[in-house]
Write a structure and sequence with these properties.
By secondary structure, this protein is α+β, with helices and mostly antiparallel strands. Helix 1 links the parallel strand 1 and strand 2.
Length: 49
Amino acid sequence: MIEVKSWGSGIKGALSQLKSYMANTPTAKYGIITDGNEIVIINKIFKLV
């Protein structure tokens, strides 16, 4: 599952949004958040990869 924000807008607020999406999608194994400048990858138990 991927959450993309506009360039340089930051990704801090997007982490909780991605976790919510993943919690409601049992088949999601990884989540990626990016704003084109920063990137975070988490697994299905919300640990950083």
